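hiii so my PI (J.) wants the whole complex modelled not just the main chain, which honestly fair. so below is everything: four entries, each one labled with what it is. i double checked the lines twice but i was tired so who knows lol
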Amino acid sequence: MEDLGIQVLKSVVSGLLMGLVFALVALGLTVIFGVMDIVNFAHGEFLMIGMYTTLLTSPLLGIDPVLTLPLAGLVGAALGVLSYYGLIRFLLRGPMIAQLFGTFGLMLFLRNLALLTMGSEPRILHKGWLVGKSFIVGPGVVLESTKLAAAVLSIVSFALVWWLINRTKVGRALTATSLDAEGARYMGISTQKMNALAWAVGGASVAIAGGLLVNFWPVEPGVGLLFTMIAFATVALGGFGSVRGAFVAGVLIGLIVNIPPIWDAMLRMIDAAGLADLQIHSFKYTMVYAIYFLIMVIKPQGLFGWKQ
Amino acid sequence: MEAVKNAFDFADMPKSELTIAGLGMAFLLLFPVLPHSSFAMATMIQFLMFSLYGMGWNLIGGYGGQVDLGKAQYVGIGAYTTAVMMIRWDVPFWISTPIGLALAVGWSFIIGYPLFRLKGHYFAIATIATSLVLKDLFEVWDFVGGARGLELPLKGDFPNWLYLQFREDYYYFYILLGLFVLGLLVVNGFRHSRLGYQLRAIKDNEDVAKSLGIDAHWSKIKAYALATAYVAVVGSFHACYNFNIEPEDIMSLDLSVLIAMMAMLGGAGSMWGPIIGASILVPMKSYLGDWLGGQAGLAGLDLLLYGGIIMFIAAAQPRGVYGIVEAVRARRRK
Amino acid sequence: MRKVAIFAAIAVLAVCLMPAMAPAAPKEIKIGVIYPLTGPAAAAGRELRAGAELAAKIANSAMDGIDMTMAKNAGIKSLGGAKLKLIFKDHQGNPQLGADLAKKLILDEKVVGILGCYYSSVTKTVSAVCERYGVPMINGTSTSPTLTKRGFKWFWRTTPHDKWFTKDLFELLVGLTKGKVKGVKAVPKAEIQKLAAACEKTEWGSNVSIEIKNFAKEYGFDLVANILYAAKSPDLSSEVQSMIAAKPGAMLFASYTSDALLMIKTLKSMKAKPKLIWGQDAGFDKPEFIALGDDIDGILTRSVFLPSVVKIKPLAGQVNKLYVKKMGHDLDGASARAFTGLQAWVYVLEKAGSTKPKAIQAAANTISIPGKQLVVPWFGIKFATKGDEIGQNVLGSGLIGQYQKKGDKMTLQVVYPFDMATDDMIFPFKGY
Amino acid sequence: MALLAVNQVSKHFGGLVANHEVSFDLYEGDVLGLIGPNGAGKTTLFNCIAGFYPLTHGSVTFGGKDITNLKDFQIARLGLARTFQIFQASGDLTVAENVMVGSFMRTRSRSLARKSAEGCLDFLGIADTGGAMMTELPVAAQKRVALATALASDPKLMLLDEVGAGLNPSEIEGLIEILKRIHSERSISLLLTEHVLEMVMAMSHRVIVLESGKKIAEGEPAEVVKDPEVVKAYLGDHFVKRREEDGDA
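here's the output for the full assembly
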């Protein structure tokens, strides 16, 4: 019983951390969708580029990886703006199908550009303030430093974006654009600029996330897809375009993927060896998708969705 | 009977298109006797398979405008039904395939009902989710070999028509070509059917469609089931052709996305679109991959170009390559 | 419309005009080699290609200072000194593409036989093509046990497979309890009685998982956690938590590189303290893994070749020297086995004295290559012709190496088989 | 018996009351006008009748059958067609194909559907546009296509939402002509909402006035315009002022 209690505690802590990481990764995606109803398939590739930026510039500049984060953000923002003016604004004229198609092309392009220039082998950071450190706080409850930093950054970023959207002039302009692009234009708001801004914010936030994550996660050209799928589920579950929704959904997904150890602890407690063959671990992402599907069936707009 | 007449009615197609289609068909019929490399033959078989996948996808994704990114689950159901039935009970291809088709279509009704309550992006992501859930289940289900997959035993005595085992690829080619022609006729019939018109009306404006007595939800489910039939049959064929199936290969997100991409590149919602898309991307994948990756050592350059082309087409003409053709034709008409 | 027509015509022409290659020159024997030269396993592909190329070079020219019969004469002697020509193809990890390439090699390039393909899933489809066409295929690097369970008549495998490797692990564990391991006193069995395994959910990983389960039972160990995890997962903390919570003495893994890296990092962050960590090759012997440095000091990995083998096998040293000259680094498990795979081809052809499939088949089924001819520390090469593993080399054996930090350098020392040990084993693992 | 009976229909959106206890009857052969200022709840009422919105309270019967809980498409199949104020078409279908979709409500056969569609286009005097795409047509023609599509579904009653909006006076005259023919030659009852009062006044046998979601008057057009409450609520200053502006211009 005690084992189970501790395991629940451990899983919740680990789930919260991971959930905040998922939310952080999904933030940019939901901002972009909120403003212009586009799902960016290349989102994970922005993350990958942020990871490589930190990985490569940190030894080059001789500074700690954490200090390169502004640079990663800058690269992400530039890439976002470039993508917007080079591709996305043309896609906006077409139907949703063409938008998915176009950003998928962007994904292939960026991923294979990385493959061509960086090679396929995964790489990791070996040195840094956050690398390889973790803190034990209580019975077996571990806080890994990179995840902790990412979780803090996640909360700060969400608060910042929330503030930006709800409390600033620019934010109101963004909201106006997302509600009614035509109307916003009459009010003297440049839709183009607002969209580009959304891409800059979206790109920067996910690239910074990447720069931070590379302190713990290995990076390879294909790393994006692992996170893209989770980010998609996060954003859709929360309701496309809802910042609050992405936050809640991210944490929810983090908690879901940490259920298996609790299950295992339960099995040990009741000594049900036969059930161990169920392979609960191999279902952890299955559970995410299944729960996503069930919630969508009950609530087709997502948890906090307001846009169709 | 009118359904059959509709399937053979090509009167609404421009003459130029019919001419090209006729030439293309003649080329396909003669291909095995023309001088060709075996790699070209293998590429042609891939082309036919992806054309059929794309035609299926196009029914719901193109004509219905519902972006479906979960077709691989039905490839899996078709392929696994054929493989399991052959391995366990020696059931020939020609019997297991209709059963696989029925299972796939049944499954499509079960998940189609809740799926089509969703719209737009929610729908697209949900199709990915359902496909991944099914794949994960197959990966731990021992009855179908789990992640290890299934290998179809060689029955010997080539050519073996019962189990679709041949030494030479042209047998497979002609079988696929038969399916391809059948598939084209069914698409043509579908275009002219009540469901076809209704589905396009739904894509145009769902509220107007409903006001015209169209049960949008049910129409989408029906078209989805028909799309599933295509994919499942080719899945069954794939199992026999490849002799080995694994969830990672035939139920992956990659395959789902590839199917959708080919159809979209060629032109979603037009009859020739998926075929055009497959005729561009399949040879590109095979030959460019071989030249740039295998020989020049420039890993990734082929897919980089592929991504570039997709971006360009999507930005220039959202209706794909066929959309460009139509735009040119419209300009000439003016 | 016209544009499309032209485009279609060009596409069509491009497809059908791919010229069928001219028939093989008399003094040349073409072997098709299918490896993952690009894609996620491109790094391994480079090693594999270099290994096979080196073997071909040695076979094609007379070389001094290498104690191998194939180095003595230029080309295949029984075929009038015909030279080997390797035709490399890249399957990118895609089984369907692999099968198409095999057809291309067999029908267009008219190869005598095939070598490949590293990934077991690709080897499966390629060997099925070879079986259909009656073309011999030798496989040197795929370790899925199922490959030789199919009763194929045209497929031979030189490398030991995962069942053997897993068995080696359990022999080592038993050896530990009996004090057979170099530099380690007998360990009370209770210390390593409990095992926890995490294997990736793929063809390969799930086979390893099954083998671990079976052998644990056979050797009397308790498998307290047997996890299949989604490969290329963004988070492994739940898996590691479950493993740690089961309090195992040994942790066993089957992972590719990025998962292996994330797994070690996660183990470290959660301060895991098992007595022993073992990896089923793959991700556990890649340069980026070795670059983890102190974190992997004391970790075990199975292999068939480790650079330290040269200490006990002079021939390996001779070949390794050439390899270092070519590539700038030592042979590894992949390149040594690719080398051996092609070497088997040379000896089979020599014995057959013909390029006719039937003759090659007969030669392969009766060949016996002594262990002293090989760079890998095996007893030799001799293929099973009956029983439930037709085509499997019965004289192969695996190694278990341990990462040990010597000064600044991370080395891999052999700890199993016990009589080949190159250094004392570090036990227990120091933990994180 | 009434063809369409609307009983105490209310529709709330959250706290907002869009329709409040609206009742009226429409008899076979009627041409009924539904007027009211912007935001009076005309379109919402249409959506409630046609089943696009679930009702908050009340019931609707059509042809003696309770259709309150039927789905939109089921109601359409009973013979209640509606047109939309804003007609958006992405342009996948030609005009003829659009109209055929209407015909397909009554037949499965493509040849029959085509014949009926051609008849409807001909009836509306736009037979020559059959091959064009919707987006290529001027607004007036688009409106006629929408009418033709509704007509092709062979309804008993047509709900026409702002069918005259965006048309110039001569186009409106033509439209009135057509609607009269639809009413007389095809014997279809009509329920129309309209901003363009001239049109409603010219066509309707009876008029219902909605204001803030409530029915405030019902009667013959000539009577209703005299009703002081209607004048105050709807026509009032606004109407007078607009008249003057038109005069100035």
